[in-house]
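Notes from hallway chat w/ T.B., transcribed later so I don't forget. T.B. wanted the structure written out for a chain they're using in a teaching module, and asked if we could keep both sequence and structure tokens in one place. Agreed to drop them here.
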Amino acid sequence: MRKNLVPGSFQLMKKINTGLILDAIRLYSPISRAEIAKMLNLTPATVTNITAELLKRNIIIESDLGQSTGGRKPVMLKINANSYYLIATHIGSTRVRVAIMNMESEILDSRTEKLYENIEYEVAQDILFRLIREIINDNKIEKNKILGIGASAHGIVNFEKGIIVFAPNFGWKNIPLKDILEDEFEIQTFVDRDVRSMALAESWYGEGREVESFICIKVGYGIGAAIINNKQQVRGVTDGLGEFGHTKIEIDGRKCICGNKGCLEAYASERSIIRFAKENGYEDDLSIEKINQETSHGNSKVIDAINKAGHYLGIGIANLINIFNPSLIVIGGDLIDVNDVFFQEVVQSAEKYALADLFEHVKIKRTKTGKDAIIKGAGLLVLDNLFDSIQREVII
């Protein structure tokens, strides 16, 4: 667990270096210790110590000998991809997804089931338990080969305690998901907010991989944000940072699901696009897939709704640019991942309302990890926590 880690501390630096080394091995394997040290500008002793711990835990293995540069041939390292597995879960606002991943974050199998609005937690829990059991049994994974369960959920989540504080789409409050999953499966579990999992996936594998700090925004039925600073999550005093969707965009405006009026979420979410289209006279039922179809067919009622929501989202993002002066903002979600009209309107609106000098130095991009961003990030919660305290005997 994270305990009193501060930027620059030995533990934090070791965690970061371990992640960098593992990532270098994953990307460039087979690779020697000397090559890793040179690539990452680390001392040979640091690389040797960390790789020794990773070898001890069977996370990496020694491969064939490399090319000699005059002395002995170097021993090469690579990820032991299927030595251990990760269970990743995402309780979203409309569905639950469970996946099993290997140590290279490759999704080996995935199951999804829809959830209805205001579903009771106990009903959703039964679905979650069943999907986890099915994916473990069907893939014949031994329990001692599961490194951990990573669980992502929409709403407000307390990471340290593993509690879903509030899931607005379902009305759940104070669900101790970490304890529930650990009691049921006897597997170490880590719980975090879905947008933070998305940010984690982008930091490891996506648009945020080459930068130390960026803002990640998830647009779905709700809107959330996460901030990565020095490759670490910024959480706030009560772990509540990121309620971007509940910043105010209209004084005394539309009522939001949170009970207040004028929230960005009431104007810029996927739910808002559907409402705007209905107000424009669109009569059929709308889903994300149908919105994309109607957009490609040039349906003006739907396109106008998309542009309206994109305009408001761009205003909200302009506020983030003006406050934080970031170099990168990454946006993800089922609709914005694939709908160019929506994304382009967001960027144009952000440019219009942000200070020109600040907008000039920010890049706004869509997630590279796309539809798998949250589920991959959920799995990475396990690995990321492992690197928080690599001395701990996590792997048996």
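Follow-up for T.B.: The chain has three domains: 10-79, 85-198+373-388, 209-367. Might be a good example for the class.
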